[in-house]
């Protein structure tokens, strides 16, 4: 490979022999075989602590401000070492693969706790400590960093389609894709789902493996989801779409730029 990249593979599943575990091992092996450098965080295997605490950040009895005190600790370089290590992995990566099972239509608690502890103000959002610039969406600190979500779930394939009971996949994951990744400036790729995970047989697994190889091969070429920038005229000061953008329409899809809105 002429231009090898660094990929950070962040995963959250308690059983390494699960479908998630097998896809993780296979996916990482494939990326390495194509010349990429892969850095891993297998949160359950690491025994990751998902709980935000003020221990070590504020004195005993002092009021803990989760946003302000973690920002101060980030600027001072006094965040816990496990958090600093994960921040370094994220900063150094050209792309991030985030893999998890969908539990109760959300990420596992251990992964949510990774976001809570790692993506602190000053590092992932808020204002740049040096310049004062807003760190959000098109001004986010992780501009250019690609992110691919891989999710296993028990739903049937059509249940996550446009008319499915569980909702279309990008809308089902909107809080994660838009509210976490796009918010921090990342280039958000269409997520990949592995439905009917509890009923996987050898034939369906082979299909999953082939499909995942294809997606990983296109990790740096796939067209992203074109979420709207916040500071280029699509939104009011109250963060609501201006009337002339998709007039009369509502819902999550209005925050994605349609093909016909982009210059040809």
UniProtKB/TrEMBL annotation:
Pfam families in UniProt: Flavodoxin_2 (PF02525)
Residues of the Flavodoxin-like fold domain: 6-211
Keyword entries, A-Z: Oxidoreductase
Gene3D superfamilies in the cross-refs: 3.40.50.360
Any single GO CC term annotated in Swiss-Prot or TrEMBL for this entry: cytosol
Keyword Oxidoreductase set for record: yes
Membrane-traversing stretches: none
InterPro entries tied to this protein: Flavodoxin_fold, Flavoprotein-like_sf, NAD(P)H_dehydrogenase_qn
Family affiliation: Belongs to the NAD(P)H dehydrogenase (quinone) family.
The protein's name: NAD(P)H dehydrogenase (Quinone)
Lineage per the UniProt record: Bacteria, Bacillati, Actinomycetota, Actinomycetes, Micrococcales
